[in-house]
Design brief:
This protein has 689 residues and is α/β, with parallel strands linked by helices. The chain has 24 helices and 28 strands. It folds into 4 domains: 59 residues, N-terminal domain of TfIIb, CATH 2.20.25; 255 residues, Rossmann fold (3-Layer(aba) Sandwich); 192 residues, Dimethylsulfoxide Reductase, domain 2 (3-Layer(aba) Sandwich), CATH 3.40.228; 114 residues, Barwin-like endoglucanases. α4 runs parallel beside α21. The chain binds iron/sulfur cluster.
Length: 689
Amino acid sequence: SAARDRYIKKTKTVCTYCGVGCSFDVWTDERHILKVEPGLGHANGISTCVKGKFGWDYVNSTDRLTAPLIREGDRFREATWDEALDLVARRFMEIRAKDGPDALAFVASSKASNEEAFMVQKFARQVIGTNNVDNCSRYCQSPASKGLSLTTGIGADSGTIKDIENASLVITVGSNAAESHPVLATRVKRAQKLGHTKVIVFDIREHELATRADQFIRPKPGTDFVWLAAVSKFILDNGLEDKAFLAERVNGLEQFRQSISTYTLAYAERETGIDAGTLETLARQIAAEERVAILWAMGVTQQCGGSDTSAAISNLLLITGNFGKLGAGGFPLRGHNNVQGASDMGAMPDQVSGYQPVGDDLVVQRHQREWGVTLRPERGLDNTQMLDAAIQGTLKAMWITGEEMSLTDANANHLAQGFEALEFLVVQDLYFTNTARYADVVFPAAASLEKEGTFTNTERRIQRLYEVMPPLKGTKPDWQIYQGVAQRMGANWKYSHPGEIMDEIARLTPFFAGVSYDRLQGYDTLCWPVAEDGTDSPLLHQERFNFPDGKARLYPATYKPRQEAPNDEFDLHLNSGRMLEHFHEGNMTFRVEGIAGKAPDSFVEVSPELAADRQLQSGQWVRLISEHGAVRLRALVTARVSGHEVFVPMNARKAEDAVNFLTGSRGDSITNTPAYKDTRVRMEVLHDV
Ligand code: SF4
């Protein structure tokens, strides 16, 4: 009816949770969310998962911050926006004058928009003059990007989510896709059901997709590199490789062959626990299949050799000719809604937007013209180095947007030391987070439903979100907050709409040359690289790889065995990850009543064998103790885990029970991504609770 139409508004937005990037129409009556309706989204069509469909009430939580907070001793008081913005600008200028620009560091949010991530790195580089800027892909996907960029020249998914359904064989490695990327996993399951796609799952945990797979293979933790190298060697030794593809499109075959010469099937069997016969069958199958897509996630990347194993995946795809055609390729599954975008936009210590190196002459000139400053050529600090520098006393100030860094980075006790050592910390978020406890100023940010911008999902698809409801009174979109501080520090920033920021991104970023809000109206999308005329690239590497000669490079990666293999004192291996209902640490999903009711707390999964050995039952409290800390959780006895494996979800209702009190600071040797999955613990059953 006309009366009804007057009040009910329907607005297109993009999911704020995972990197699948589902988009929907949200029906609202003022701030009341009536329904979430999928339909036209490129990634999802008519599908959503529980978070996308029902996970939005966090936006109206009474916990939302509605005024800036300023620390006074051990307490915080509410302040006006002017007072808080003035204070941050003044303190940043003082610290820069006293200790230099590299005494400050900036963390962009992978939940905020592309435009906002771009502004964080612009703020760091233009207003402050430092490359100390990063985003949370450092905790998850940097090794996957590195492995792919070393081999193909582009560190991103090579095809689209829909296209995965065209694969004749999908292999997932270290990815609990049915819970972490549910709508994408639905496509894999559907293709399998229709009979044209076989699914093989490699994982140490028998999660949902593993139970549905045609084959589930359980390697020993942290040994994926070994089976990948052994399968590659078998293929080459037996002449099963794609010879034409290798001759025409790939460099480095002999060096690669040499690098894997010791990875026999017998060695792989000893190291991974997968029998040699299974690996031989797999090698023959991969070589014979028409279209192989390999999907991977944190089980691969959050290891000491995350980049090497990611490169090993890409190497295997290259020798079998599985790039540049539909239904084939490498698909690292991005975690956050915009973790792809935060990296694309240059919130990284060594690259500006579009993965352009800060030291490249052309890049320096382009930015000189646009920003009026000369980019510094040296790499800045990444996320994991920032807190170390704070402890050492060289980093004095940080500005963290939308990241619960104190609980999601590894080794939470160590992080706490770093935060306490900082002279000045600014935190920008929806709520008073655990990280905000260390802050000097807390800015209340607007949620994704309250602003315009773009997100880029795991398949490089740039999608617009529109303002579903105005920012909650007292909050501001992140981009306006950065602009407020920048202007107070003398910068000539005059953006009146995120579309103007996108125009600047397009001018500075060859991958984004043809991106504009006009070309992204409504449900229209673009997969980067986007040429100036607006032609986009859903499928990469069709004619050439992104190296000067157009050829891919097989990378002679090396195996980095795990460092915390269980021993007498710490006899269990700890694995961690997402669960379907919650997103990461749970700051948003615990504030959605229906979800919190269904999944009210964290737990530790214990195998039936271990439970019998320790006389432990589901529901009993246990303490997990590692070399880095301890947490208390209820046990859940389940055959999803086996033997001496335990699994703890990343989300914790109480901050002190967060799994990252157990993880250590050791990281991937190339990207510093913490080796979360390389952690040993022991378990004590608590009888007196
Ligand atoms: Fe959102 Fe990911 Fe679920 Fe899609 S699959 S609705 S993007 S959380």
